[in-house]
Design brief:
This protein is about 35% helix and about 15% strand. The protein is an alpha/beta fold. A seven-stranded mixed β-sheet has the order 2-1-3-4-7-6-5. Helix 3 links the parallel strand 3 and strand 4.
Length: about 220
């Protein structure tokens, strides 16, 4: 797939899925959320139940056919540009090589989207590595009236608080390219912990529901903007 055709591909697939459901048609395409593998020592692989649970939630509540298992990719994988949305999380150090930096920049500037969720401990490293990706851009706080907080489920006060780490409110940040948000970064909330199986973190059902709803908003936003 041409690097410049990612966004066209997304819109065609998303529209086809919606039309297919409306007409009762069957489609072999299943939407996936790709977990991004990275070096540096951080646990990019943590909470293996979180992505499958979010995808099942989306299939039930947004009527999209989704993959049943987690998929993974590195920034140097040949298939990178066929994946519309990347998911990155972890507790520790993140490191991108110069080749990975260039690849991620090209991916994001040509229609791709990265959702990063700080699982407490990666904040400093994520910001440092993303500054290598976009040295001329700022990581901006996303205002509460942004569509990402209202697209499917309504979050008038921005990100929901899922887990308490350092105190203070949760914050959503983003990188923008030509007016389009290409990176969404969730800080001081740990949205994806709320997607995990209930026994993993012991979150109340209402907390898990908010986390799954916000995750749905982010993925659908990425697919439609």
């Amino acid at each position: 797939m041409s690097r410049r055709s990612i966004k066209t591909f997304l819109l065609i697939i998303f529209s086809a899925l919606l039309v297919g459901y409306a007409m009762g048609a069957d489609s072999s395409y299943r939407l996936g959320l790709i977990r991004l593998k990275y070096s540096g020592g951080g646990d990019w692989y943590n909470d293996p139940s979180c992505i499958p649970n979010l995808l099942r939630y989306m299939e039930t509540h947004v009527q999209l056919k989704t993959a049943q298992a987690e998929q993974q990719a590195s920034l140097l994988d040949k298939t990178l540009f066929s994946h519309p949305v990347l998911f990155l999380t972890g507790h520790g150090r993140i490191f991108f090589s110069q080749k990975e930096v260039k690849r991620l920049r090209t991916y994001l500037m040509n229609g791709g989207f990265l959702f990063a969720d700080d699982d407490y401990g990666m904040n400093r490293y994520f910001r440092e590595e993303m500054k290598k990706v976009f040295p001329d851009k700022e990581l901006l706080e996303i205002p509460f009236d942004h569509p990402v907080y209202h697209l499917v489920f309504n979050f008038p006060n921005g990100l929901p608080k899922i887990h308490e780490h350092d105190g203070g409110p949760p914050k959503g940040y983003g990188y923008f390219h030509q007016g389009r948000m290409v990176v969404f970064y969730a800080f001081n909330t740990n949205i994806s912990d709320g997607w995990a199986d209930p026994a993993v973190h012991g979150d109340p059902e209402e907390v898990r529901e908010r986390a799954l709803q916000m995750g749905t908003n982010i993925v659908i936003y990425a697919l439609t903007h």
